[in-house]
Amino acid sequence: MGGFTYENNKKNPRIYKNSDEFGLCSLFVKEFKIALLPLLKYKKVGMLHQRLMSLCSKIKLLDPTSEKGNRSMGGGLKTLKGKMLLREFVFTPKAGIRQHFGNPDIDEADFTLTWRGFDPSSARFPKGATDFELIYLVLAYDPDINLFATYEAVPIRRSKQGKAEVLVMPLARKVKKKEGMYFIPVIGLRFLEIIGEEEYECLGQDAVGIEILGVY
Q1: Which domain holds residue 63?
Q2: How many domains does one find in the chain?
Q3: List of residues 6+ apart from 151 with CB closer than 8 A
Q4: Is position 1 within any domain?
Q5: How many Å apart are CA 116 and CA 118, to the nearest integer?
Q6: Is 107 within the bounds of a domain?
């Protein structure tokens, strides 16, 4: 009998190789979402798994050195286009972060984030929101084992009345580097309503934002 089974796949090299690539993509997406949990816990992103699988499939096809069946995200990210596709992935279209604050600078030595002329009043506050919290992560991706490590900065909060400043967000611990790794800085923004000592999460599509700042 035929059918799409493990044993039949092994007998068909084309299907077997494609299945291997699909499995690597699936593992990448799973680990990527785990690495993003400090942000994703605040926001359910619709169809995220499916959209990331589609992104992964596009990036692995760019792998310039591996044969068909062995192409991977790590190989695809060697290319400028692969980096661009990951950087431009849209998590939350209704909550633009750089749209509000402009582009930060990132020190490639230690991944400290610096936002010059950062002005809290330029944010588009959802109804009822009084404050926001910025969460900065760096995801360190090791393509050899298809796993991530997550490095975090101390979150900062600002109110509607905040003044323009030079905002600096260093990571809380030193990034461990290894040749061949990729580093993906990610910024998260979530709006809050704070009344006295009470705080409430704001709801709505524009209440939480997530953006990839680059791929190094």
Answers
A1: 6-212
A2: 1
A3: 111, 137, 138, 139, 140, 171, 172, 173, 175
A4: no
A5: 5
A6: yes
Taking only the tens place, the pLDDT of each residue in 95-135 is 889 988 999 999 999 999 999 999 999 999 999 999 999 99
Count other Cβ atoms within 10 Å, centred on residue 88. Answer: 10
* Ordered DSSP codes for 131-186: EEEEEEEEEEEETTTTEEEEEEBPPEEEETTPPPEEEEE-BSSPPP--TT-EEEEE
Residue 46 lies in a domain: yes
Q: Residue 171: CB partners within 8 Å, gap ≥ 6?
A: 110, 111, 112, 136, 138, 151, 152, 153
Q: What is the pLDDT of residues 158-202, one digit of tens each?
A: 999 999 999 999 999 999 999 999 999 999 999 999 999 999 999
The runs of H, that is alpha helices, within the chain are 6-11, 13-35, 37-40, 48-60, 73-76, 80-87, 98-101
Report if residue 141 sits inside a domain.
yes
Q: Which residues 6+ apart lie within 8 Å of 52 measured at CB?
A: 29, 32, 33, 89
